[in-house]
Amino acid sequence: MKQIKLAVIPGDGVGVEIMPYATKVLDAVADLHGGLKFEHEWYPYSCEYYLEHGEMMPRDGLDQLSQHDAVFLGAVGNPKLVADHISLWGLLINIRRGFKQTLNIRHAKQLRGIQPMVTNPGGFDLIVVRENSEGEYSEVGGRIHSGEDEVVVQNAVFTRKATERAMRYAFDLAKTRKGHVTSATKSNGIVFSMPFWDEVFEQVGQDYQDIEKRTAHIDALSAFLVSKPAEFDVIVASNLFGDILTDISAAVMGSIGIGPAANLNVDGTHPSMFEPVHGSAPDIVGRGIANPIGQIWTGKMMLDHFGESELADQLLTIVEDVTESGMKTPDVGGNATTGEVSEEIISRIKQ
Amino acid sequence: MKQIKLAVIPGDGVGVEIMPYATKVLDAVADLHGGLKFEHEWYPYSCEYYLEHGEMMPRDGLDQLSQHDAVFLGAVGNPKLVADHISLWGLLINIRRGFKQTLNIRHAKQLRGIQPMVTNPGGFDLIVVRENSEGEYSEVGGRIHSGEDEVVVQNAVFTRKATERAMRYAFDLAKTRKGHVTSATKSNGIVFSMPFWDEVFEQVGQDYQDIEKRTAHIDALSAFLVSKPAEFDVIVASNLFGDILTDISAAVMGSIGIGPAANLNVDGTHPSMFEPVHGSAPDIVGRGIANPIGQIWTGKMMLDHFGESELADQLLTIVEDVTESGMKTPDVGGNATTGEVSEEIISRIKQ
Ligand SMILES: CC(C)[C@H](C(=O)O)[C@@H](O)C(=O)O
Ligand SMILES: CC(C)[C@H](C(=O)O)[C@@H](O)C(=O)O
């Protein structure tokens, strides 16, 4: 029996609504296999937890989570916490960095039964490899002077090590896919970090002679995801650019509620974390209509991570069978609830 | 007779192809007025110029340009210059900064006869006010160490003065439009500059009690421009975020080739510059199919700038009459040339 120990963190908002269903779906998939079992331990770390305890998780939170094989996270965020970087750096980014989850992999593709939001989808299927540990998200910077003379400096920090790692991952991935990688840059406007990014892309690319290298500035690339998403396959991007591109690609698919993501620890020292692209969606909380597909597809990426690609593919096929059948939440044009969609997926798994 | 002295810089690529037509359109519009005349002086500053002279413009280039009331620019960029920040900082950004064009205003709306690239356009009509003088586009930063230990730091620099200026402009604009402003932030991930940005937005907003204030993170906002562009009216954004949002909004309209832009000098000390959102488009150069609408609409923004709003509106109406008639370049689904579309616009102006 292969046991996978999951730390389940529903988090806030729709995360709490979706997670019970998503874990049930995963259990059903594991049963298909026979020899696979998920053990879940639930953790209440969230903005709600913060409001009660004054911190997003206890001081030994990372230690506790590290007892598990992976973290399965819902969403974090609460409109009551206006300075939301405090909650996010306390939990989400804390785990990403504490567990050296240096890559954030996000998949987007046209799903059967879900109307893309663009007029020229062309059957697109792309993966964004996002550098997840540094770059524009840095705690380096500060303010000087006050009043009308105030100046604020924010440093983006790029290391060769982390940049190379993201690029190698992207090139290796491209070998198993269509054989080309697009690098998201902005070296025409951002003149230190981005020319360096381009340089590393070119250097690493020399080890991958068979892979076609393309570069596009983030402004143009964002527009291309709208106008011709099918031209892209593997995209490698910095922390901020990857963040932006993957929200766009999720919307292009039809709803931000369906984008999956994996925060990968690639050196094997810590658990990886699986959390969808969408946030806690306070606007629809309590109505039972949150789309569970982002979280379920994220679970599919977790199955891939643990070497269960066959099960993973089976799960995504069933998800598409369900969307194709018309059983969908309102964000993608249906009128089903979170529970109805999830139960339908479970019942098809069990068939 | 009101004379407007234009420094015309066709630049590179499609800029060179479009500019003769765009200036002809402007002349035709001026004739409608009777009392208005554009005087143009043409400048060859471009990447081609660089390849010949080793600089993008002569040392007294800014002095020469400053003799004019405005700069009308086509596009800059040449694939032969791989490190394109050299050419762009030498010309485009040099002019923006040298002439204190601290705001970049970009309009996007659903045009009659042009199919938007998103399935839910809803008749959107929005303006992005982009801070144009600082932020993420800074020459502050550098590298340390080498080889696998290399670290690159890029500073984004935000001043209260420039941030406030962009916001006041946005709020003032909102008064003449739908009464709400959306601020593009990323304070949950970028923890110095963006919380400051939010703070200034809130502070400046207090002087505009009647204007509704909204904020959205750049990732979500980029996705919203795809999923529900009609919910936005005035958006205020940093240099980089404004750059990204306006390429997206141009694509959403139907083609990056139609987005207009105005680089405004708001203290009246230097000429403003009018240049479309699109670049030099090396992929289609020489085929005569570049869309002239971006440049012509940019001319319309120039007319607004010089107080000729009535003429400006008339011009945009005629542009839409032409697109509605089906006379369009291939990027927006037609088969007309740059010249045919432009001549059709001119002939309707003269009617
Ligand atoms: C060419 C580049 C430097 C420029 C920018 O990013 O400002 C362009 O994308 C624009 O939007 O005008
Ligand atoms: C919540 C925020 C800090 C986070 C990010 O920007 O990384 C989110 O947008 C994401 O993409 O996971």
TrEMBL record, chains A, B:
The keyword Metal-binding applies. GO terms for molecular function: D-malate dehydrogenase (decarboxylating) (NAD+) activity; magnesium ion binding; NAD binding. Its cofactor is Mn(2+); Mg(2+). The keyword Metal-binding applies. Signal peptide: none annotated. It is an enzyme of class 1 (oxidoreductase). Residues 5-345 form the Isopropylmalate dehydrogenase-like domain. It catalyses: (R)-malate + NAD(+) = pyruvate + CO2 + NADH. It comes from the Bacteria. Keywords: Manganese, Metal-binding, NAD, Oxidoreductase. Its EC number is 1.1.1.83. NCBIfam families: PRK08194.1, TTC. Belongs to the isocitrate and isopropylmalate dehydrogenases family. This is D-malate dehydrogenase (decarboxylating). It comes from Alkalihalophilus marmarensis DSM 21297.
